[in-house]
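tool_call: predict_structure(chain=1)
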Amino acid sequence: MSDSLALQALLGLATAPVPKVHLTPPSPSAKSPPQIHLIDAQYIDQATHTVAAQEAFWANHRASVDESLERDRWKNIIRDCEEEGCAYKTGIATHMKTHKAAKHGIGVVWHHCDRDGCDYKAKEAGRLRNHKQYKHNPYRNFRWNLCTEPGCEYKSKQTHHLKQHKRNVHKIDVVWFNCSDPTCDYKAKTASTLKQHQQNVHSIGIRFYHCEEGTCEFKSKTVFFLKTHKLSAHQIGRTGTVCYPCTEVACEFKTKKASQLKLHRRDVHGIGVVWHFCDVPGCSFKTKAEWTLKRHKRQGCVHASLPVTLTNFTAKDVKIK
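tool_result:
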């Protein structure tokens, strides 16, 4: 008997080989149960060489089969959370497991603090270590920084936190920044706060943008306001081009483009308009567009007998009945 047969006889595989079960997931349209494939003992003998290895092999295989069966059991099935008062539902097993752990603490391994009188617990060992380090300090000799002011119980693990507490609460060791204006008593704890005060109140340290037009004394803190001033006061556009104002009496219209000024003069003041008059006796109709005149002749009751040429009509004209 070969070594493989002896090993099989020892495990009872020669007479009753243990099959390997492999689940093949069915197609979406199939309704038959999963097929079961068998792997013979010769394959097992080739894959494993010791009793311990075979035991581990079959243990991993059973776990894989159980996991596959569990996935198949959950497949396309919406299940509700069994906890009382919980309306959560899902069709994915891992989602349900995560939900139960997060919301109900089911399946969570808690790490409890072993210090007397401490009820702290954490889901992660690292968080428990941090808790012990900063709350109980078991790994180092930690010294609190205590506030020495009478009646103050403040303490800090960091020295700069204690200094900040003394400056803000007790006004100790505060370096004041005084305003440089002789008539101002303002002072600040930081240089940035003082700089902001001087800029907003005294205009110190601000770069002004001055208007260069003639004797204009306008100045601004930003380029935007300077451009706005030039546009409104000196008719200078953002690109430096002179605006085009309307020359009609009592008209304050102005624009940066000559084409827009032309449209304004035509539409508002009737300047530069080519009028198209109706040539029918007794009709005073006139229009700025030729196609409007053609539409007038076609629709007007007094011109119904006149021939109408549609050569220059637009699609809009034809649609109008």
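agent: The radius of gyration is 46 Å. Proceeding to next step.
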